């Protein structure tokens, strides 16, 4: 039996938001799409504030400096919405 290891790279390649979703492209070609409503700070932000993101955490995180929001690819892959405590 031949078992081949899957090579994954969960670092952030690109981030975008539309009216309803946060979409994160990973370096390995996968795309994560989650409801924007899961992240109250992003929902409340202007489109320009949402577009002003930067890669953080060695490539495994996303930071929005104007709204002080930080997300990790690990949390996004787990499907973890923001906790109520983290919302504001």
Short précis:
With 88 residues, the chain is an alpha+beta fold. 18% of the residues lie in helices and 32% in strands. A three-stranded antiparallel sheet has the order 1-2-3.
Account of the protein in words:
With 88 residues, the chain is an alpha+beta fold. The chain has a single domain (12-86), classed as Uncharacterised protein PF10387, DUF2442 (NE0471 N-terminal domain-like, 2-Layer Sandwich). The chain has helices at 40-44, 47-51, 73-78, and strands spanning 12-17, 21-26, 31-35, 54-56, 61-64, 69-72. The strands form 2 sheets. A 3-stranded antiparallel beta sheet has the order 1-2-3. A 3-stranded antiparallel beta sheet has the order 4-5-6. The longest helix has 6 residues, at 73-78. The model has no long low-confidence stretch (mean pLDDT 90).
The average pLDDT is: 90
SSE series: EEEHHEEEH
Sheet bearing the most strands, described?
A: 3 strands, antiparallel
Instruction: State the name of the first-level CATH class.
Output: Alpha Beta
CATH architecture label name: 2-Layer Sandwich
- How many distinct folded domains? 1
Which structural class best describes the helix and strand composition?
alpha+beta
How much is the radius of gyration in Å? 14 Å
CATH homologous superfamily placement: Uncharacterised protein PF10387, DUF2442
Helix content: 10-25%
Count of helical segments?
A: 3
Number of strands: 6
Overall outline: globular
Strand order of the largest sheet: 1-2-3
Query: What is the strand content?
Result: 25-35%
Uncertain runs: none
């Amino acid at each position: 039996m031949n078992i081949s290891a899957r090579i994954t790279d969960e670092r952030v390649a690109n981030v975008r938001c539309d009216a309803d979703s946060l979409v994160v492209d990973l370096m390995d070609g996968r795309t994560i799409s989650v409801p924007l409503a899961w992240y109250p700070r992003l929902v409340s932000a202007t489109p320009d504030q949402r577009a002003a993101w930067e890669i953080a955490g060695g490539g495994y995180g996303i930071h929005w400096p104007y709204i002080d929001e930080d997300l990790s690819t690990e949390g996004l892959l787990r499907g973890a919405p923001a906790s109520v405590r983290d919302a504001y």
